[in-house]
Amino acid sequence: MPNDADALADRVRRLAEFLAASDALRVRIEREDEDIEVARYGKAVAPVTVVMAIDGVAAFEPPPLKVDAIKADLVGIFRLSRPTPLEGELLATDRELAFVEALGMRNPVRSLGGGRIVSIAAEDGAAVEYGQPLFLVDRG
Amino acid sequence: MIANRGEIALRINRACQELGVPTVAIFSEPDRESLHVRQADEAFCVGPGPVPRSYLNIPNIISTALITRCDAIHPGYGFLAENARFAEICADHGLTFIGPKPSVIAAMGDKATAKRIMHEAGVSTTPGTGILAGAKEARKHAESFGYPVLLKATAGGGGKGMRVVERPEDLERAYASATAEAEASFKDGRVYMEKLILNPRHIEVQVLGDESGNIVHLGERDCSMQKPSHQKLVEEAPAPNLGDAMRTKLHEMAVRACRHSKYTNAGTLEFLASGDDVYFMEMNTRIQVEHPVTEMVYGIDLVKEQIRIAAGELMGYEQRDLIARGHAIECRINAEDPRNNFAPQAGAVSKVVFPGGPGIRVDTHVHSGSSIPPYYDSMIAKIVAHGDTRDAAIARMERALRETVIEGVNTTVEFCRDVLATPEFRSGHYNVGTLPTMLEAKV
User: Fold this and answer.
1) Is A77 part of the contact surface with chain B (CB cutoff 8 Å)?
2) SS3 A39
């Protein structure tokens, strides 16, 4: 029968594996007598916290994301505006995030309101087509 | 770049592949899974389903051509194929428009200018007048042309301000109502008159011209089997029962007109033929839907020729090198319900089996499981049969239509079989009135 330290190490390892296989930034288990948190650093990913339920403790369901896709409405070259928007960044209000360069014209891509940038879906300097997602913004 | 969709986009892609030319396809959102998208080297979505926002979206189309570093744009037929402004915009951006010069497209697109050019080239046009000053002048011209005549609004379109006058006693009333309707519709009551050619044959001549001024014709096509909406359904080359004198006259007129207008690339002159008379109707400055019947008879790939000519190459052959062999027939397979006034059909095509075997060519973008969006032309395939003789081509086409299976939408397959079985088609004695009369009899 494994001792307490082995059991704890096993739980941490399982959490680390779960974290590696997901987009989550941090995983935390809360029990009456034990808190375990595993987090990752260094990679800019969406700050999603997953709280797992084990040993009969009820799960906390995070509110669903209300994610809008901001799409290209013309064909051209996608360029990020300055200051460069970042994934995870909070947008207080409407703001120009990028522009699509077409036929020598600079066509702004705006956030159309506040929110958090979940993902920058197109590469800076790449050709984009009509309807292509450029940004995913969480309006929640 | 191929600025089109459906079967003609695939047709152009095939020509490019055989020439070793990489391709860029454009597509609308509902066409994302289309064959022309999958078979091109690159593909860009240029807009949503409706045509004005996608296949007519000039800024997105030109932008796509520029960012993919295209050298040339083939417009196919329809959409931007005869848009002189688009051809100019291509030139402004350093893109070669695969077709004639913008000025020639514009001239042929304007009925009055085209008629004047033909007149200068010695090509007979439908007898007609300038703007009429009143009913009295109209009567004088009608008597010289002979009844029936057609009154047309100079600002006209969609049949508004148009009246057929069959008898002298009807002229005055028809003139009054035509001018009133034209005034109400276009705020321009001016009308002119043309001689009405009753139930003519629709015969067209294929031409090619290069930058050196070499102009050749590739014979004629008979496109008289038309629905009441004037859409062609069955075409054939050469035209049956035409007579050598009439055939030569048509070919010579077409070449003369092209020489006069310094025409380059592929084009088609459409004529109305009635008895021994033949009149220029219009010129299409593009590839035609029915071009495969000419290709089957002459063994020339017209789309490859278009691309070569646009690249500045000379044709390298003359009229005497072109020899017609055998006979070809094309049936247009449309997603339409012939029992319901040819109402267009949209939806999923659950099963498709196209014919094959000797002498059969199928140009299509449709396959089992593909979807027909509601936004576009209903033509889903062209079946072309070639034979040593007209009878052999008919027999081959009947066999090909029997082999054809299309499930999920109504089509014109059965209707084309009925048309081929009519005594008029069998004998080759038919005109633009034949199909509407056949439909009326069925009703």
Assistant:
1) yes
2) strand
